[in-house]
Every structure is written in C-alpha cells, then in structure tokens.
C-alpha cells in the first residue's frame, strides 16, 4: 500500500495537525516506510508462538477480585456541591 500526497493531507486534517506543502513529501515518505514495515511483519510466520506480556517470563502480580466501596466515601464526596447519604446530588435534566 502506498500513501499519496492527498492522503497525507487528509490524515493531517483528521489529526488536526497543520502541515505545509513543503512537509508533505517528507511525511509521505515516512508513512510509506511505516506501511512497508507493517507489510514485512505480516510475512513473519507466528504459528505456534504464544502471546506474551513481557520478554521476561514472569507471573503478573494479581490482587483479589473483591468488590468494596473504596473505604474513602467521605473523601470522594467532600468536594461535591451537594451530596446526601454518600451519593452525589445532581439536578434533574430529563422530564
């Protein structure tokens, strides 16, 4: 896949990045190089390769999956404009 100048301008517009006409050829080359690298990666045979989260074999630290109220309800609602019984009070917006 190859990126043309119009596509570079469109990507810049979508990303809300100001790109001058002088910068377009450089960015076009950069984007084409990235896409060529992705195409190279698609050629790699990964059959039988297990997914990994790190290059070092290690177990992830896990915590117990327990539902709590956070034990800081008063601190959470302390800056609320209005609260009642540890809940935020908000104005009614739907009739």
From TrEMBL:
Q: Which reaction does it catalyse?
A: L-glutamyl-tRNA(Gln) + L-glutamine + ATP + H2O = L-glutaminyl-tRNA(Gln) + L-glutamate + ADP + phosphate + H(+); L-aspartyl-tRNA(Asn) + L-glutamine + ATP + H2O = L-asparaginyl-tRNA(Asn) + L-glutamate + ADP + phosphate + 2 H(+)
What does the record list as GO biological process? Answer: glutaminyl-tRNAGln biosynthesis via transamidation; regulation of translational fidelity; translation
**Enzyme's top EC category:** ligase
Which Pfam families does the entry mention? GatC
What NCBIfam families is this protein classified in?
Answer: gatC
Would the keyword Manganese turn up in this protein's UniProt record? Answer: no
Q: Its function? A: Allows the formation of correctly charged Asn-tRNA(Asn) or Gln-tRNA(Gln) through the transamidation of misacylated Asp-tRNA(Asn) or Glu-tRNA(Gln) in organisms which lack either or both of asparaginyl-tRNA or glutaminyl-tRNA synthetases. The reaction takes place in the presence of glutamine and ATP through an activated phospho-Asp-tRNA(Asn) or phospho-Glu-tRNA(Gln).
Q: How does it assemble?
A: Heterotrimer of A, B and C subunits.
Q: What is this protein called?
A: Aspartyl/glutamyl-tRNA(Asn/Gln) amidotransferase subunit C
